[in-house]
User: What shape does this take?
Amino acid sequence: MTEIATPRSQYVQIADIIRHRIEQGIYPPGSHLPSEDQLAQELGVSRVTINRAVGVLRSAGDVRVRRGTGTIVRSIPRIRRDAAARYAARELGTGAGEVEITRLNMRSRTDYGEIGQTTPPADVARTLRMRGNEPALVRRRRFYADDHPTQLADSYYPWSLVEDCPQLHQADTGRGGSLARLTDIGYPPLRYSEDIDVRMPTPEEQHRLDLDATQPVFQIWHVAYTHDDRPIEVCIHVMPGHLWSLHYEWDEQPTAGPPS
Amino acid sequence: MTEIATPRSQYVQIADIIRHRIEQGIYPPGSHLPSEDQLAQELGVSRVTINRAVGVLRSAGDVRVRRGTGTIVRSIPRIRRDAAARYAARELGTGAGEVEITRLNMRSRTDYGEIGQTTPPADVARTLRMRGNEPALVRRRRFYADDHPTQLADSYYPWSLVEDCPQLHQADTGRGGSLARLTDIGYPPLRYSEDIDVRMPTPEEQHRLDLDATQPVFQIWHVAYTHDDRPIEVCIHVMPGHLWSLHYEWDEQPTAGPPS
DNA sequence: CAGTGGTCTAGACCACCAC
DNA sequence: TGGTGGTCTAGACCACTGC
Assistant: This one.
């Protein structure tokens, strides 16, 4: 029942061999694999077959290839993202983006891209219940842990609501981050929803997150609502799948069903 | 900044062409792609290059290959999994596993594998705070939507707690599913936690979920707790990434921080 | 048996990197 | 300039499907 009879192809077997050597410490984290020519000779197959085997390890995030240089064994552990905790972090004076990284004793860094007025994508506008051609404030960021990019996060706010909050228009939003600023201007977020997909990265995401085309990403569509269920922010996160572990908790819902 | 200068390789361009034709309806959902030989001739490249291009579409879940038969355009839309709602479904008399499928007007079916006493994996035993070699009740299921496998779900319960609940030892757990039974025997789940990873499927998972080796899966590690935070169930879900969209909602936490 | 995709090879050329 | 990986080809053989 559990048996898989299929005699596996050479490149899969070779991928297993290499993975095994990594686990055994023969190719320790951070080190270079032997070149594909060397491996081909050692294992008695063509270089194309080795290349394909390495491709298996790449999609899993086990190794990282730099053209012209060689193939390096990865070492970063998965980062735990606790959804509820990260948005409570403003109490600690930290922005949501940095919570997870500093907890791992890694250096957190943020790259700021476009910050300013924009026409939001149609689905963002719909989610924010924006009418007509109302513009949005967009804040595009890229987060790093020890110089490895870990996440792209694009936040959108209805322009009219945040127009007068200068700190949201700057890179540094001040103590407590953007959530604290929303609270300041009278729109404290009280409810959140997230929708999580997995997909392959676009060419741009491959470039910005230093990913292969075959490495899946999480896409998290995050929405913050105020007390009267008004959507105040949409944030789209794109995160390399092999780097993250997502955590959620909730209580049993007091169902609307009739206990009568 | 957004520009990707890289002249893309032929197989990526060809993958784009084929994807475009699918979107245009030239290759409608459910239909066969032309054979790789035909495509190679039409596009003036070798069959290996076509094969690689098709590989790109396979990892994304856009097509499905059956050896000896051909390559078929997929059609299933993403299934939305609302974490909180599905566990409230016992009120409706439905098991958690079938909520999402029936909502899409698809036929839901469940395959039952092993149901009975077992030695749980070490991390499951730890999560359930089981001591020594206490056995567990395991329930292994596979869920389908319209005959497409959509999910593997292995649930574990501490044996001593569920020993006397005969319905949990059968395939059909009765109205409201296993959660209703836990409630019956005095352990109503009140809190849930889930941890979500993405990874490539094992050979067994590839086989049981009808997946390619390059198609990522969600792995959800689900834990149910009773009122006194006693873990009562661990369920490990493995789900094809391209089939699902995961949904979570929560309220702002009344932080322990000092508002004094 | 014919048609499909799966895999493998040898050889080639290219882009990129470090020196 | 030499070494690394990225890609492509032509040809071959195999496994699986359906007739």
